[in-house]
């Protein structure tokens, strides 16, 4: 049976779940694709672990438990090269200013003929066009579901399900954490700070919640979707952006009295002046399809020329769902082999 080798960069909440699900599904890959899919390597910020025969769960557990060494210079790109894998799954930090280590890793993977699956957003925000061109040049795939709302189908919906249509507009509730904060404020009358603290207690928000609540996460997803699905050349600074921290209790009461619901909505729209992309805090009325999208639930609405409008609501917002989205991408690549 043909072997298919996987390397994961970043071994945190998502990376661990990718490894776990990948091992659980090995039998499925054999039956469905006739492939022996094995995880040969994974890397953290300071070092990696490798086994050409496939990493065993006990080795991965020990690797995850190791303390960071900190003082050893680590070249993730050299590590990736030494793994000689068929596909890289990138689950490191989303550094949207520089692309972070993920940008170098994905570039390196594509240049050396590996397929790449991005869950982190930084590399895609900084250079989607360059990475996509690199993938084409080397005859490999660059897949991005995990970075574009993960369990909520966005990029696949736009690129595959609506292929041939002209997409006129996309709008979405793309960040589960932000939606949880706004829903908690509306339903429980708590302040934004209290809602953020609750999200942190439940493990929904990061210790530093700014990436999500200040709209960066949604803006990253909008930038990537605009560039990948509309062929735009937007940078993050082209996206006007709101933060949910602007919302006060008084404002919430006014919206409640007028039957409105606040949502942080990322949108991309074709206009006569060109593509318009933004992240706005909007108060939608009760008839709007996003009005009842509550908690960490996400949603996307698409307007097309000939297939009409589409709405998808749901999909979990957690590391398991993000890992599953990356492995959906893996299956799409496997189905082409
Ligand atoms: N969590 C979610 O639900 C979710 C959903 C969708 C997308 N994402 C995206 O997925 C990515 C991972 O999220 P996470 O929650 O798993 O983060 P996390 O728990 O903080 O894990 C990040 C991992 O990246 C590693 N890392 C940092 N710098 C590195 C480098 N230079 N080379 C190799 N590895 C490096 C860290 O290493 P150490 O272990 O040594 O610190 C850690 O293992 C993020 O980009 C996030 O935006 C997350």
Automatic annotation (TrEMBL):
Its EC number is 1.1.1.3. Residues 10-142 form the Aspartate/homoserine dehydrogenase NAD-binding domain. Belongs to the homoserine dehydrogenase family. The keyword NADP applies. This is Homoserine dehydrogenase. It is an enzyme of class 1 (oxidoreductase). InterPro entries: Asp/hSer_DH_NAD-bd (IPR005106), HDH_cat (IPR001342), HDH_CS (IPR019811), HDH_short (IPR022697), NAD(P)-bd_dom_sf (IPR036291). Residues 153-330 form the Homoserine dehydrogenase catalytic domain. It catalyses: L-homoserine + NADP(+) = L-aspartate 4-semialdehyde + NADPH + H(+). The keyword Oxidoreductase applies. It comes from Brevibacillus choshinensis. Keywords: Amino-acid biosynthesis, Methionine biosynthesis, NADP, Oxidoreductase, Threonine biosynthesis. Pathway: Amino-acid biosynthesis; L-methionine biosynthesis via de novo pathway; L-homoserine from L-aspartate: step 3/3; Amino-acid biosynthesis; L-threonine biosynthesis; L-threonine from L-aspartate: step 3/5. It comes from the Bacteria.
């Amino acid at each position: 049976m043909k072997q298919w080798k996987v390397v994961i960069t970043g071994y945190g909440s998502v990376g661990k779940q990718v490894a776990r699900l990948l091992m659980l599904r090995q039998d499925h890959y054999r039956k469905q694709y006739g492939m022996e899919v094995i995880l040969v390597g994974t890397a953290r910020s300071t070092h990696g672990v490798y086994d050409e025969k496939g990493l065993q769960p006990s080795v991965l557990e020990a690797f995850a438990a190791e303390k960071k060494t900190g003082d050893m210079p680590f070249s993730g790109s050299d590590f990736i090269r030494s793994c000689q894998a068929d596909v890289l799954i990138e689950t490191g930090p989303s550094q949207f200013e520089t692309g972070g280590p993920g940008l170098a890793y994905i570039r390196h993977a594509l240049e050396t003929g590996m397929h790449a699956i991005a869950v982190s957003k930084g590399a895609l925000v900084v250079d989607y066009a360059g990475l996509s061109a690199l993938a084409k040049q080397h005859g490999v795939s660059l897949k991005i579901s995990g970075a574009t709302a993960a369990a909520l189908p966005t990029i696949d919906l736009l690129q595959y399900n609506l292929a041939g249509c002209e997409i006129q507009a996309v709008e979405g509730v793309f960040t589960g954490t932000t939606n949880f904060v706004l829903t908690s404020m509306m339903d429980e009358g708590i302040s934004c700070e209290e809602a953020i603290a609750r999200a942190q207690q439940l493990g929904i928000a990061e210790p530093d919640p700014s990436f999500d609540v200040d709209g960066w996460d949604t803006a990253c997803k909008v930038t990537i979707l605009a560039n990948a699905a509309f062929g735009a050349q937007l940078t993050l600074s082209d996206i006007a952006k709101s933060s949910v921290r602007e919302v006060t209790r008084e404002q919430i009461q006014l919206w409640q009295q007028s039957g409105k619901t606040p949502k942080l909505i990322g949108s991309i729209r074709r206009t006569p002046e060109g593509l318009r992309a933004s992240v706005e805090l909007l108060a939608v009325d009760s008839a709007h399809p996003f009005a009842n999208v509550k908690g960490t639930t996400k949603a996307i609405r698409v307007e097309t020329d000939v297939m009409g409008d589409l709405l998808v609501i749901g999909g979990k917002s957690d590391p398991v769902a993000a890992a599953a989205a990356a492995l959906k991408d893996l299956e799409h690549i496997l189905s082409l082999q």
